[in-house]
Amino acid sequence: MSKNVLGAICIAALVAGCADNINSDHYSTSSVGRVSTVAQCTVLSVRQVSVDSGDTSAGTLLGGVAGGVAGSTIGHGRSSHALGAIGGALLGGLLGSATQKGLSHQTGFEYIVKLDNGQAISITQGASQPLMVGQRCLVLYGNPARIIAQ
Predict the structure, then answer these.
(1) Residue 72 scores a pLDDT above 70
(2) Are 136 and 127 in contact (CB under 8 A)?
(3) pLDDT tens digit sequence for 92-128
(4) Domain residue ranges of the chain, discontinuous segments joined by +
(5) I need a surface site. Which of 10, 69, 135, 140 has the fewest CB within 10 A?
(6) Do the beta carbons of residue 137 and residue 43 sit within 8 Å?
(7) Which long-range contacts (CB under 8 A, 24 or more apart) does 142-147 make?
């Protein structure tokens, strides 16, 4: 039984790494050194939103493999091991998918800002540095775009 628990912990740790960092203060190495256009703006609206990756394939795959391996140890004889592996893979896949969905869920904010040229735009980003309505900010156009305090 301790092997099953250890396997579940490993799956959770691997799946937790699948969540993207959506905060405005996080940069990938490919973004470093790239030039971004910057525009001044004022925050018009702030709305808290849920952000999900939507893709649970990695969790399903990892859970299915771990469940299949764990399930194959059940019973005596070839047919019992095969049935255990199939059942374990199905249950592991379901558990892995649910785990990844839960671990990849994040809270973010949708900001509607008015650029100084009069255009209004919307950007959704993580909740690490919330901005307030009326606050002067900077929009950093890039991939991903960000809004930061001025």
Answers:
(1) no
(2) no
(3) 666 655 555 555 668 899 999 999 999 999 999 988 8
(4) 1-21+54-104, 35-52+105-150
(5) 10
(6) yes
(7) 142/31, 142/34, 142/36, 143/31, 144/22, 146/24, 147/24, 147/41, 147/43, 147/111, 147/113, 147/123
Amino acid residing at 18: C
* 3 state SS for the chain: CHHHHHHHHHHHHHHHCCCCCCCCCCCCHHHCCCCCEEEEEEEEEEEEEEECCCCCHHHHHHHHHHHHHHHCCCCCCHHHHHHHHHHHHHHHHHHHHHHHHHHHCEEEEEEEEEECCCCEEEEEEECCCCCCCCCEEEEEECCCCEEEEC
Residue with tokens 């893709």: 55
Summarised one tens digit per residue, pLDDT across range 1-54 is 455 545 555 555 554 455 676 666 666 676 677 778 999 999 999 999 888 766
Q: For domain 35-52+105-150, say whether CATH 2.40.50.590 is its number.
A: yes
